[in-house]
Structures are given as structure tokens and as C-alpha cells.
Amino acid sequence: MRNRYFITIFCFLTIFVSCKKDGANTDPNRTLKRICFGSCSSQHVNNHDIFRYIRAQYPDLYIAGGDNIYGDFFAIIPGSKDYMIRAYQNQWKHKPVTDLYNNVETLATWDDHDFGQNDGVEDNSAKYYAKELFFQWFKIPEDHPRRFNPSGEIYAVQEYGDADHKVQVLLLDLRWSHTPYKVGGAAGALSGYDTIMDTNARMMSDEQWTWLGTQLEKPAKLRIIVSSLQFSASYNGGEAWNVLPLEQQRMINLIKTKRANGVLFISGDVHFGDLNVIKPTDCYPLYDLTSSGLTHREEKPYKSTNRVPGVGAPLNNLNFGQIDIDWDNQNITMLVNNNKAVAKIKKTIPFADLNF
Questions:
Q1: Quick check: 168 and 215 in contact, CB under 8 A?
Q2: pLDDT in tens, 187-225
Q3: pTM above 0.90, yes or no
Q4: Separation in Å, CA 95 to CA 90, 103, 178, 302, 326
Q5: Which residues does 134 contact at the CB level (< 8 Å), separation at least 6?
């Protein structure tokens, strides 16, 4: 009789657990302890198992950092609207991808390939329908403020936690208003760009700069600036903030002027994992954790003289990024994990090291 009782209870619990629906926790008041992020996921690749490993880390938040699809015609010409629709459909057919997006709150920005053109900037002819499709597939509500930015850019902010655990996530748009490049730099045929010193050249519109300054005035313990392009890497001719050094300096000056503590950049685009830092005068170190290559990788990482020593070599393998926040000990750990969730780059820094 007792055995039958326990069997009954066991069966009830089994049914209850199996019927319990998963779903993303989107409560902005919750305390974030783990954030995962990644970029560069091609719908043309069949193996998306890395998304299973990301979900297995039980992140409180996932950030899709750009190139979430490849919507251009094989890095040659902008993708048509029909082509981009098929790209999203094919990407969303991969169950590990939708399992992650449906069960972990996901914030997203775009980079060139989901913007519709390889290395695309303000003159990209595909950008209007690319934006429409981005909003549709990432389920941005019809009344969400980022749909109504006067500049047309898709920048946005989301905050989490109470005053003592406030995390601010700032999603930049580095494509819509980006000044066209000067071809002829140090990198390869597809991305070889000279630096642009024109004072009118822009990474972002003046409106987005003003918005960002307003956000940096708000109190926060940690501010994650989601930059689809590397911020702190040194110049190598590829797309990055250092191609427009006046804009890079403008960002540094803004952080200093606003006395914005807790800034950490995360980036993608380059198809390898990396950790760089710059140390501006009268400012704390500005770290840039790069995770790129969810489904494909660069054979040889680009050169950078700003890499953080002693944390692991640049990872030219499939990878995702991770930020663990230890509120008790007041530090964060930045990681780049390989496609089996093994940390290959790791750096722990106290909150105090990100303060003025």
C-alpha cells in the first residue's frame, strides 16, 4: 500500500513537471547574475548546437549582438526583402535557436548582415525593410520606443534590478547613420578601410549620441554597451570604432563627462573571441569583450595591440560570451566560451575598477 502511495505521488510529480511550461522571465525588477551573448549566426549552417550550450548555462538574459541572420547575397550585394524573409525563416527553423529565444529573455541589435548589406552603412538600400523584419522576428512590440526613434535608428535601453543591483543594457545602432567608408586600408579585399578624420563623419546620429548621454546620467552599478563593432581593439583596417577615431574619442569623452561608472563594452562581427582594453587619461579602463562566430569562424584573428594579457589567446573557434555578476563580492567575470561551453578567455574585475 505504501509503495503504491509513493508511486502515485511520483507519477503526479512527473506529470506536473512535464506539463510545466518553460518561458522567458522578463521581469525588469529581477537581479541579473548571468548574461550570455553571441553574434554571427548563419542560417546556411546546419549545426546550431552551440545555442543548446548557451541555454544550459541558465543565463538570466541573452543578448543577440548582431549578424543574427545573413540577409545579404553572400557578402556581395544587399539582400532583397524576400531573400531576407527566407533568411529569418530558415534561421528560426533551427530548434536550438528558437528554444533559446523562447525560454531566455533576448535583447537584440543588428550588424551589417541583418542590416541587409555586408559592411553596410547609411546608404544601404535594404535598410528600411531590414528594420521592419528585425522588429517582426525579434517580436519588438508595436508600441516599443525603439520603433519610433526620430533618426530611424534602432537603439534602445533596458534596465534590470533595484538600485543596489542596477544593470543597464544599452543597445547601439552602428549602421543606420554610419558614414560611408574610405576604401584602401590594411585589411583584406572585403574590409580594408582607411581611418576617417572628417569631423562630420559619424558612427551614430547626433540624436543617438544625445540619447546615450541621457542614459549615462542615470544611476547604475553596471552598464553593458552593446556595440556590434569592436570598441577597444587597435586599428587593423577592418570595421571597428578606430576607423573613425574621432567618434571613438567622442564616446570616451562622453563617459568621462557624464562620470558614468560601470561601463563595459561587448561586441561581435569579427568571427573570433577576444578581450581588449583601452586606458584613457582620467578614466577607468574600458574593456571590450568580443564574442563572434556562433556558426562559423575566422581562420586567423586580426591583430590588436590592446589585448588583455594573461587571460587566454584570441579564440578562432565557435564561441559565445558570458558575464557573471557576483553581487556579494562586487565583481564581474568576463568569459569567452567555446562551442562546448569551456571557458577559453577569462577575466575577473572588481566593480571598483570600473569607477571614477
A1: yes
A2: 444 458 999 999 999 999 999 999 999 999 999 999 999
A3: yes
A4: 11, 12, 34, 32, 31
A5: 108, 110, 114, 140, 154
